[in-house]
Design goal:
The protein has about 625 residues and is an alpha/beta fold. The chain contains 22 helices and 16 strands. The strands form three sheets. Strands 5-6-4-7-8-3-9 form a seven-stranded parallel β-sheet, with helices on both faces. A seven-stranded parallel β-sheet has the order 12-13-11-14-15-10-16, with helices on both faces. A two-stranded antiparallel sheet has the order 1-2. Bound molecules: adenosine-5'-triphosphate. GO terms for molecular function: ATP binding; hydrolase activity; RNA binding; RNA helicase activity.
């Protein structure tokens, strides 16, 4: 991240424990948050009991072909058709195509890989490779575990019969989180989609866009199987009336499941830490925003809540959400990212939203910028990334050490790998925890596809062939390096296409301008790196292209980065919308990587062929449907 360039090397400046009496008076917007004693544990609620008692359900698993219903019939037919395609180039041939020098992973290892297992009928010839030089998937998906045989653990992943069985097994519903829950109404997603209502969120979507489409969410939110379902209304969540006005003004009708479950836990007193996992695009931002807005005292002109995000783009977006939902309060926000603060400037706004480097910089100035003892809430969005040992974790921990011991730590993400879960639990002790089951982590409405290319060099041609599809709505193309992003942006531009590239080497102003241009629809295709892989919410993005498979870099042996993949594809399919993701496969290595991703996620991917006009036509139809929203 470019934010790392502004990290000072100073250590924490004060031992705040000396002056902290452990008791904080609240005069904020939370009607039930009058005062609390952080050291008291007697009234701490048992989270698991609370969650278990809620009748929240998640959408049952769906076969890929069931994702597009009604007018989606052509797509369903495409999906069944393309699953049987055997038009892939001979893997042996593609493996002989030299990798680009910029890809150390493929250049260093592909030669030692065994020939793909072409007998596997389920992945098709293109994805039939076996892995031998990396660890096997930590845990085979449930479907595969009982009957996997032969050479590939992922065999059953795309066994339709097995999926149907799984689907009906899951129609007993669960909430996606680990604890069992009570059953509720059993309306299926498909049934609900057939009903039409007039409820629209188009008048109030947070992000305005000239391509705004009317989206009807009421049926989806009434479906107990959906991550957007809630048994409660916002009115029942005991929010301050000025916040209710803010919620109405942004057009939210009903809370999503994470909002419904997390908000009472967040707002209860004494405040408890919370670690919340919920699929991408399900409304985590509003959950922690409402908590921050509820807990700060508008009369106290100093920062009382800090929210950290991994990129300036996400911090800006969060600030916009907080400002909109808080517009009927006297609460103000300050953006703490490079370039948004002049050294020595005292900050008197109530909520600081920023990136860790800038916050460390501010806090290292010995309380002259703001008094950290007044901080009551510390939010980490994309928390697994924010506390990851390699990366931003050091700075985040340093910031936490400078905050008072009674601070409420709130950690949200769509992904919490097991090893990070353990660290999160020590970072936020005695937290209420909401973890998703592994198989529920990806959004079901994102149709995941893979595209076979004849070697690295032909990836660009495939991308170019996809351009028309990419501009039906808006698309984000993720590359591994900044150089690749610039290179393909330049080549597409030379071909007369209109695209923008965004990465950490651009200056702050350009980065802001480029994302704003994409957000307001002026640019329809954004070529980028992982800098916008997480959190960015642009509802019209109906397609994500993984030009390169995300990997864990040198330190991680260039193994595929499952979490980054989940976040990248999560830029589409937001809050009830559908979306498509396409990942490029061009050699044995990338083929193995995609197999690994499928196996880890327990999700099949279907193949598309960029040279096949039928495939492109059907993809186009799917994207048009995705753009339309959940009607
Ligand atoms: N209750 C609601 N009703 C309608 N729309 C909502 C509601 N809550 C959130 N949204 C919208 O859903 C979209 C996704 O929300 P948000 O960005 O908070 O998702 P997220 O869970 O943080 O995703 P990610 O994991 O990608 O960061 C936003 O456009 C937001 O305005």
């Amino acid at each position: 991240m470019s934010e790392s360039t502004d990290i000072p090397t100073t250590n924490s400046w004060a031992d705040l424990d000396d002056e902290e009496d452990g008791k904080v008076e609240f005069k904020g917007l939370n009607p039930s948050a009058s005062s609390f004693n952080p050291s008291s544990s007697s009234s701490i609620t048992n989270t698991q009991q609370q969650i278990t008692s809620l009748s929240v359900m998640s959408k049952a698993d769906q076969t890929p072909s069931s994702l597009f219903k009604e007018d989606d019939a052509p797509v369903a037919s495409l999906l069944s058709r393309i699953s049987g395609l055997t038009t892939n180039p001979d893997p042996a041939e593609s493996s002989s195509t030299p990798s680009t020098p910029s890809d150390p992973a493929s250049s260093s290892t592909s030669a030692s890989r065994p020939k793909p297992n072409t007998s596997n009928p389920l992945f098709g010839r293109a994805l039939a490779g076996v892995k031998t030089d990396r660890p096997p998937p930590a845990q085979a998906p449930a479907q595969a575990s009982t009957s996997a045989s032969g050479s590939h653990q992922g065999k059953e992943l795309i066994d339709n019969k097995q999926e149907k069985k799984e689907e009906s097994k899951m129609s007993g519903f669960d909430n996606g989180w680990d604890e069992p829950v009570q059953n509720g109404n059993s309306n299926s997603f498909e049934d609900n989609n057939e009903k039409k209502t007039d409820t629209s969120m188009s008048e109030g979507g947070l992000i305005s866009n000239e391509f705004q489409v009317e989206v009807k969410l009421a049926d989806l939110q009434a479906d107990p199987n959906s991550a957007l379902y809630s048994a409660k209304t916002f009115e029942e969540l005991n929010l301050h009336e000025s916040l209710m006005k803010g919620i109405y003004s942004v057009g939210f009708k009903k809370p999503s499941k994470i909002q419904e479950v997390a908000l009472p836990l967040l707002l209860s007193n004494p405040p408890k830490n919370l670690i919340g996992q919920s699929q991408s695009g399900t409304g985590k931002t509003a959950a922690f925003t409402l908590n921050m807005l509820s807990r700060v005292d508008p009369a106290l002109l100093t920062p009382q809540a800090i929210c950290l995000a991994p990129s300036r783009e996400l911090a800006r977006q969060i600030q916009e959400v907080v400002d909109k939902i808080g517009q009927f309060t006297d609460i103000q926000t300050h953006l703490a990212v490079p370039g948004s603060w002049s050294r020595g400037q005292k900050i008197t706004k109530h909520i600081l939203i920023g990136t860790p480097g800038t916050l460390v910089d501010m806090l290292s100035r010995k309380g002259t910028i703001f008094d950290p003892r007044q901080i009551r809430v510390f939010v980490l969005d994309e928390a697994d990334e924010m506390i990851a040992l390699q990366g931003l974790g050091d700075q985040t921990v340093r910031i936490k050490k400078m905050l008072p011991p009674g601070v409420q730590n709130v950690l949200f993400s769509a992904t919490f790998p097991e090893e990070v879960q353990r660290f999160a639990e020590s970072f936020a002790p005695e937290a209420n925890k909401l973890f998703l089951k592994k198989e529920d982590v990806t959004v079901k409405a994102i149709q995941q596809l893979y595209l076979e290319c004849d070697g690295e060099a032909s990836k660009f041609d495939a991308l170019s062939a996809l351009y028309d599809c990419m501009t039906i709505g808006q698309s984000i193309v993720f590359c591994r390096t900044k150089a690749t992003a610039d290179n393909i942006a330049q080549r597409l531009t030379e071909e007369g296409h209109s695209v923008a590239s965004l990465h950490g080497d651009k200056d702050s102003t350009s980065r802001d301008d480029i994302l704003d241009g994409f957000r307001n629809g002026k640019t329809k295709v954004l070529i980028t790196t992982n800098v916008v892989a997480r959190g960015i919410d642009i509802q019209q993005v109906n397609m994500v292209v993984n030009y390169d498979v995300p990997d864990l870099g040198r330190d991680g042996g260039f193994r595929p980065d499952i979490e980054t993949y989940i976040h990248r594809i999560g830029r589409t399919g937001r809050f009830g919308r559908k979306g498509c993701s396409v990942i490029f496969v061009h050699d044995d290595r990338s083929r193995d990587d995609v197999n690994y991703i499928m196996s880890e996620l327990g999700k099949p991917m279907k193949q598309i062929n960029a040279k096949n006009q039928d495939d492109l036509d059907e993809l186009e139809k799917a994207l048009k449907i995705a753009l339309k929203g959940p009607n």
